[in-house]
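Lab manual, section 2.4: Encoding a predicted structure.

Procedure: take the sequence of the chain (564 residues), apply the prediction step described in section 2.3, and record the output as structure tokens. A sample record is shown.
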Amino acid sequence: MKQSPPDHLAGLPAQRRFDEREKALLAPYVTSTDGPVFVLTNLPEVIKGALFSRYSRSALGLRELLLKEFIDDPESAFKEIAGSPEETASGAQGAAATAADRYLAVEKAQGFYDRILDGYGDDSIGELGGAHLALEDVSMIATKVLEDARIGGSPLEKSTRYVSFAEPRQGEFLFYKEPTLLASPHRQRYLDTCRRLFETYRDLQEPLINFITGEVPRPENISEGAWKRSVRARALDALRGLLPAATLTNMGIFANGRFFETLLAGLRRQALSELQAIGGAARNELHKVIPSFIRRADPEHPHFDGFTGYENRLREHVASLAGRLAASGGEPPGAAERREVELIWHDPDAGRKVLAALAYPDHSGPLGLLQDSLLRMAPDERQEVFSKLGQARTNRRHKPPRAFELAFFSFDLLGDFGMYRDMHRHRMLTQQRQMLSTRHGFVTPEELPLAGLEGPYREVMEQAAETYEAIAADFPLQAQYVVPMAYRIRWHMHINLRALIWLVELRSSPQGHPAYRKMAQQMYHRVAEALPEFAPLFGFVDLEDYPLGRLGAEQRSEDKRSGK
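Recorded output:
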């Protein structure tokens, strides 16, 4: 009698049946030896990447490939690299020894894996293997460069809202001791300014927490714990502007090999010594896990020299262009008075293009014909369509259709560096920033004057500006490290409507930092002014103001922990 497949396989094609020996060999490395859908387990990234590379050009299934070309091929060093799940679970000492053995095995078998990956000549092969990279004690300047490589990587950085940076380590505050500055006449001034910024950040925490506690009483329906965490978060939000860009933080990045190859090569070509050192250290660690995926980032590789030459030529041309523009008269009159959120470009015809793209999949005609047809649609009819599209969403996570990606907006933004760090984390857009400086002034959180704490804050900010100017005369790149996060930076953002709706609704939510909430709200207003028909699409933009924005989120978290 023929056996029926399990319920979860019903309706799926029958698979090649493996015998008991083959199942025993495969079982540690796949979640299913029977069904057509399964996940790889307990395999190092170098094997997974090479296995998937072969998969695209083989008539065999993935499990058959794993058996034939890896498990049973001595050249792959499969046993030495993959080991067995039992070895990994055997204890800390055994696991450490196994890790060292596996590293040596990867080194010896690298030629085998390089041949597989080189045999395809497709950069996308580098996306089939990845790694979790941890970077500790890197500056906030460095984190922005690490996050500039947007596609293929997912970074996560230590929060300035939930973690205080006031605790010293071995008697010293945690900020980057920039080697060029420490070897220069600016050494003591740089150290003294950074230390004073940290001291002020530390000394203002308790009085500001006490002030906010007195100003915002705990609502009856909010627990003591949620309220205290919200008060502390608001205080740390207000004081984070004191932290210099040299502040050391931690971040983790999960990414594919292609991302890491691009990142490492870029770090090696940076002018700042910290970034070069991070690039070298990251290469050494990633080489232990995914060596074949990052080999082109090595300075000895021909690709590295080619890209270095290209970047040098590009930098020379850009510097020449910038010099010509500066010589033509600098900033135009009134530039300094521009709004912090300036919509500098949009397509006036974006509404018609979006609606045509929306209807396109259900139509048989060309896109141009649909766009022409919409010229005959009355404005109030178009507005009704957009209103209904907005009403169809019942929560923020209901993302608009892909058709919304045909409308683009370009913003010129001016905000404090702390706010920029939050906005910069969005990846589905194009961003370019200017160098960090103290020349656009700093932001003073409204809580500090109300609490009578503005004096020490302003005093240390002005000291930082003086230190910056002194250092920038000799070392403009390195001078960025001493700039506190409250100082403004200018950047440009080019974004499509679909991504903009997500950004604005997310960053205007009550639990967001007040500074970027205001910026997100202004971005919405600029779009609504320019193209009113798009306003209903931002159904979950929050235009309200909140004294303790984190309060609701903290209470919900506490309710979950208590099982309510």
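Check your result against the sample. The chain has 24 helices and seven strands.
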